[in-house]
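Consider the following assembly input.
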Amino acid sequence: MMKLEAIIQPSRFESVKDALREAGIEGMTVTEVRGHGRQKGHTEVYRGREYTVDLLPKIKLEMVLPDKLVNTVVDTILKTAKTGKIGDGKIFLSKVDEAIRIRNEERGENAL
Amino acid sequence: MKQVVLKCCCIFAMLLLLPTVPLLAHQTPSAPATSSSAVPSTVDSSKALNDKLAQLDQRVTAAQSAGDNAWMLVSAALVLLMTGPGLALFYGGLVRRKNMLAIMMQSFMLMAVISVLWALVGYSLAFGGNGPVIGGFEHAFLRGVGADPNPDYAGTIPQATFMIYQLMFAIITPALITGATAERMKFSGTILFLTLWFLFVYAPLAHMVWGKGGLLNASLGGKFPTLDFAGGTVVHISSGVSALVCALYLGKRVGFPKQPMPPHSLTLSFVGACLLWVGWFGFNAGSALAASSLATSAFVATHFATASAAISWSLAEWLKNGRPSALGAISGAVAGLVAITPAAGFVAPMPALAIGFIAGLVCYFMVTKIKSIFGYDDALDAFGVHGAGGTIGALLTGIFAQQVVNPIFGAGKPVGGLDGHWSQVGNQIVGVLIAWGFALVGSIVLLKITDMITGLRVTQEQEIEGLDISQHGEEAYNLEL
């Protein structure tokens, strides 16, 4: 089992979500976050003082997937979330030791 | 010749008395006829006529009073609306989310505290007596303040109306100061300081400019008649200058100026600013103290100055920053409202446009350039807008006031610069300086006293946590589940 974390542009999120559903992937957790990599922020002016707002809004997608689905999901996200510009985001993959469904206490890949 | 004149006089007199005839006919007798004789004597009929005329006079007076009183009560309500929620929202939106309730609570509490003090002693101190600097105690506990008009101030409305109208000014003036102390002053210190300030700075200034015998009173023969229609000196210079003193005394907020502290809700500030614009019609036009053409004139001047100032501030920003901001536009409008306040009932519409335009530019300069040069933390620009706007407005009033708008010094007497009476600008300067001086000295002394009793500033931890939690145990928004 792998955990997939993807930070993507908010404007691409709907497309990513639709594409994943079409690919038969169910289950995700979505959070609104702020951050930046190499992308520059924007300047705001308040009472004549300029200041930079460099924490930009992004969407974080988290999913735990059976190993055989990981490549499909990564390809889907890469295809739909990419705009080609700086600020597109990143995908991180990590191993998951265990998954448990709370309702019936199933474990392992059956719980996903 | 004499015959002709006599005949004309007779005809004229008969024409004047003609309207009384249908009224006599419509009269429903409430008491039986005075005498049983068929033909009333000449003495009886002229007495009846005089009684009729006296009755008519009474009814006309009552009708005028009704119109004036209706307008003045509405104006009083409009001015209260300026504080709650106008100023509360305007300031509230400008502070950070963690301090929203605190700034609103300060305005709201003043609505309560100043009201009670006004009833007990405030009105009397400001408008009683006839001293040059302060009133007296004859109207303490609102003794003698009822349905009868006070001819010194507003001869066609109950004195209680005048009293309640003036109260709303006394409420908003200290509330303006909270803009400079925002986000770091203790609630207890705020209330104590502003209560003392109301008694020892506002009441004397109000008396000097508007009270009978006041040193600066333009309409009641003050020694240095300062033209201040609705409170440029009494309200805006006093609060604005005191705000600056407070900001310097309290010191800068933690993180100022490096840390950006943008408004948490310009939406609310927008709503507040619009409420201020509308409410200000009560503030300025109501200062005519009657539903008169002077009220109209003040209403019109107020509106045009505001519009003009919103434009000039926005233009300045557009040129300087490449784009006009919403905050700039509403601040410009407020600056215009402040500047036209002393001028409203003295200037014509075109000068009002000019006053507004100038005020927008001056106040923009004050809150951007001057504030950043001197580095004081006037958190919500109470000094930059009210102090500066009030000062420039008071001076421009001396230039643009005209007798054709308001012959305040008497029929045929010139009023301001446009009438050739340029020495009025000198009088304005005196009034401005006295207001500045009173506010400066008064604030320093009262801040010191308050500091000794309750303390002024919250601790650094409390400031970082936010005043809503530390001073009031509440949060403005509980948006999470």
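Chain B has one domain: 65-472. Ask yourself how this observation constrains the way the partners meet.
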